[in-house]
User: What shape does this take?
Amino acid sequence: MVLSLENIAIYRDKRLLLKVNARVEKGQVLTIMGPSGAGKSTLLQAIAGQLQSPFSLTGDIKINDVAITGIDAHLRKVGIMFQDALLFEHMTVGENIAFAMPASRKETKQARNNAINKLLAAVELEGVARRAVNTLSGGQQARVSLIRTLASQPQVVLLDEPFSKLDLALRSQIRSWTFDQLKSRGIPAVLVTHDKDDALAAGGEVIELLLC
Amino acid sequence: MFAQTTLITRWCLLLLLCIPVLAGLVGVVFPALGYFPAIGANTFSTAVFIALFSLDDVWQMIWLSLFTGLGSTLVAIAGAFFILATFYQSAMLGKIQGILSPFLVFPHAAAAIALLFAFSPSGLFARIAAYASDVSLPSSGGGVFPYDAFGISVLFALSLKELPFIILMALSVMSQPLMQKKLTGFAKVGTTLGYSPVACFFKLVVPAIFAQIKLPILAVLVFATSNVEIPLILGPNNPSTLAVAIMHWFNHIDLSMRLLASSAAVVQIAVSAVALLLFLGIECITKHIGKRSLVSGKRQFVDGAVQMFGVAIIAFYVILISAVVYIVLTYSVATQWPFPALFPDGLTLLHWETAVGALAAPLMNTVLLGVGVSTSSLILVLFTLESEQLRPASTYAAKAFTLSVFFPLLVPGVAFLYGLVWFQQLVLQSAVWFHTYIAHMVYVVPYVFLSMAVAYRKFDNRYAMVAQSMGKTPWQVFFQVKLPSMLYSIVVAWALGLAISFSQYLPTLLASGGTIPTVTTEAVASASGSSTRLTAVFVIIQAVLPLIGFVIAWCVPAIVVKTRGKSAPALKDKSRKGVLHGA
Assistant: This one.
């Protein structure tokens, strides 16, 4: 899977906000840095198909060289993660993950539960599937949020400062979990961050947005 | 598809709010100009207005409406701000909200009757005073309360009823996440600059929130200048306020009085408009003076007096509520209760048996109407709010929309409801339930909208983004993520809608032509006659009905959460303490 951003320009009320041209190969992470107000999160919303007025977009966003620019957000297969875990509080941990998994008629309930447990085991969270999400610690929630995103089988993942609320010890651990998982599945990712360490750990191209 | 559905709903909601009001206005303007074919008046003229203004009392009526309406609103705002200034940083705020909330859902008619019980010359406070001073006969009504010619008792009752509404509106603005953050910051900076908490409230918090509570306050003002129940039950009779006179003229057996009533309804609109202009003028002057006091550098804001008033008003509410609860409950089971005695001679369940027999059908009507109206307005409102989020309108359009949601609240009900009835009789004469339903919707939808809009603004839209990025369609995001997350707010809005529908007097009476009696119409009817004890039972039922709605609202999320077998995330909001912590 490859994500390409071809001659992307985002406008705010017809005034140019930013321009980007980039190609993210499978398993690679493109890092976007820049001051507040430069449009980092707006760029992610544009890729996810959730750009709202007064912003507008020109250029082409392509996944595997197929343009997705005109497709509705929920059909794009672009996963997004924020600095908060944003687990749905009216569902259990397991239900959160099941909610994200693509619907399938053939699969039995047992198979689905097995898949959920396997995902949880991958981030060392066996046996929490039946728990309420607000009984988990911040670090556990961050990990559930990660596997929930992966469970939806995205073709691209967008990371909007996902580590900035974690304390230092947790941060590097969750960061390596995240990048390892993305790499092993060959998913291209775009990371927005203020933190130089994040950019170093991501190990990919870094684009610095400027205020214009 | 989903976006279109919600957009269509939004237009339905707009039309539902505006068409009845506009039709109603047309329906009173024509007769006011002398055009009323039903009684053979076919020509336009200003004769009716001339007749109206040649009445002796008309200016006194206008003055009464203006005085009680504007006066009560100003008193209520002052009182609300005193209370907020005293308690806005305190953990007591939640309790105060709890004390005042029942007043909000207590129907106006019931509140007026309850005040009558407490303050009339033979009421509870008079009894207590008589005990102290050894008097054995009630005074013959020389006092201020009730029915005084100046309308003081009406003003007093209206402000008691409006104050909780203004406080709750202000609190809902202050607790919006962004606003809360901003205000906490303001209060912190103010405190470090040496301003007292009260001064911080008036100099920093009020300017920041006033723009957002202005529209609800204007709605309160219009309501107060044109309310019928309270002046009808507590106000002077000769002359009465304009709204009460309009109602009497419209209901007069002589149909030609309708012309007079219609012209008075047009004048009523003018009166409410004048009240609005006066209010805006006062706001301007206050702002101007306020600006000066801002730069004066004074660190206090008559702190002692404000806090004294704040505490005193709350204490007064507590005493009043206890007194009302005592006297209404006791009256409802009393046999004989001669004047200065604090307890009745004996107890009986007779009044309850009579009332239950008489109220079975009205109760059924009340509940049917309430559930239908509240549920359908909730559905309309939810889809409308969703459409706003899917396709945010330009700021100009959004403002116009908010204004039109308030439209039915900004036009005096007594003015347009009669015209609406006239139209309804032209179109579908026998669809009484439908007409009553529409008349209720006009009043319920705005409140449900206000209540839900707060929750919608609080909802973190990133949840919706996350769900969408997992491939969920907008329908799924709406039904599986948003609605369950807002369950508590939704059932509260539903209960509020029920309460508003239960309390409607004029819309029910007029739209149904009196053929659908409800608990409220029966209570008002009984207040002006029959037995005090029976009226007490009606008041209790009126007070309990909306509470049942809120109890359901409180139970539903708890039950849903219980079946999930987990802790109760949806109820988190309930334990909110002071709006601004640590300031």
Summary: Strands of chain B lie at 35-36, 41-42.
